[in-house]
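Support reply, case 0932

Customer input (verbatim):
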Amino acid sequence: MNRFLRVESCDYKAEPIRALRDAEADRRAGRYRGALEKHIWFHECAEQADRGLVGVRLSFALAEWYQLGLAFPPAMDALIESRDRAETAYKYDLLQVDGFRDAAAINRALGCIERTAELFRFVAESDPSKASKVYLFAEAALIATGEYKLCGDFLNYRPILDAITFVSPWEAAEKTMPPGGLYLLRNTVALLVINHRCAEAWAVAREADSRLPGQRIFELLASALEGQLPSL
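Our regenerated output:
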């Protein structure tokens, strides 16, 4: 548990998102210590109270915590400490997937994505099967640091394709990709081409097109099929 944590679970367990709203209000009012305590509670306890908050916890909440850290150095120290503990938990198998996921999200908030790439490289060399379970959390950092070959070693496009539910042509007009799905699909296709696996890239595009008829998949993937990665 984080040494800065002072908020009791009973204060926010019934409505965990309120902790985040109160933390933002505290920051704007200059109540930095109180804001920090609420951010730590939200990061460490909110997901247990409501699994639906995982996306908020790993994006908006961390961005808010980082803003607090710019004004209140102990908050930045606490954020870095949370990252370090997540990395340690992952390395020593205490939190296999979640530890890497959390560390990668905090690194993104801190602007330290190269550290995520470094952690993935370390694990990929020592335990490839373990690294494969967290590849998608590392992909953006690996791309940003030019580790295209390493991406190619761990690409697994089957889960991305399986997330696209087949629909009939008359339903396709209302069908959209899962959140972030098109970005991941473009990354996958482009990385396959970059790694000289063009036949697989075209196979992925054809399967995506068959699952989403009428959605101009080949047009949307045109640049990726030429090996161009989408911009972040």
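We compared this against your earlier run and they match. Two observations from our side: Residues 73-91 form the longest helix (19 residues). Confidence is low (pLDDT under 50) at residues 167-175. Please reopen the case if you see a mismatch on your end.
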